[in-house]
């Protein structure tokens, strides 16, 4: 998976913590996993989303 950071890790953590929409916050939690270099099946397994959902 090719993921390029647009904000710092600290800024992303703050964004996740302040997000009021629980579904959106949950989706945002997949981003640090992808940035850490995990492949999409691993990110999907850890977040509970489908692999295809993580890839898009």
Biggest sheet, open or closed, and with what strands and sense? Answer: none
Poorly predicted segments: none
Rg estimate, integer Å: 11 Å
Helix/strand-derived category reads mainly alpha
Average pLDDT, rounded to a whole number, is 88
What features would you describe in this structure?
The radius of gyration is 11 Å and the shape is globular. It contains 5 helices and no strands. Helix content is 64%, strand content 0%.
Q: What's the topology here?
A:
Blueprint: H1 9-18, H2 22-28, H3 30-35, H4 40-47, H5 51-55
Helix pairs in contact: 1-2
Which features characterize this protein?
mainly alpha
In short:
This is Helix-turn-helix domain-containing protein. The protein is mainly α and 56 residues long.
